[in-house]
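DM from R.C. (forwarded with permission)

"hey, sorry to bug you on a friday — could you get me a structure for this? deadline for the figure draft is monday and I only need the backbone to look sensible"
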Amino acid sequence: MRAYINDEPVKIKTNSLSIEDEINHRSSASFSVRDYDNVYDFYKGNRVEIEDDGNLVFAGFIEEADKTPIGQGNQFFHQIVCTDLHYLADKRIVFLAAENRTAGAIAADVVDRFLEEEGVIRANKFIADYENELISDYENVVISELKRPDIDDGPVIEKFQANYVPATQVLDALAEQANFWWKIDYKGNF
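My reply, with the result:
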């Protein structure tokens, strides 16, 4: 296993890594880093990626970082607790009103208007942009390899309003009304 914090490699202490990933729950990770020369300072909000043999198995942000001295030298252990990319939806404030739209259309609007700036995308929006030639940097992309399920429509919601609340709260309310669940995966796909 290999971890990166703010794109810098750090060595995970043996047997300290724990990753929790369940549907309808936030994913989390925790691990320890040994700091032999007191060179690391980790903070809430630092970006974290964890790979296993080059495959991304977790991406998120530090939620807690505790630094503990080892003996009387200049060495420390850092205990890192991370939350997944839902953090991006936590920090974005949404304001919108909709009438007679499907829950999926409202959720897509939230992603496109408020979360895309954070790097969260809908796969089919990328495909639609490519097919409309809005993405010119991807000349050799095979569209069939990119297609993934987009947001399901769900029921039509007569009236929906969000007045300056976190995107997480909006998406949770839509999911509850539609009896669906939502997730931002480790690559930033909604």
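R.C.: lifesaver. Residues 15 and 78 are 14 Å apart (CA to CA).
me: no worries. Residues 103-115 form the longest helix (13 residues).
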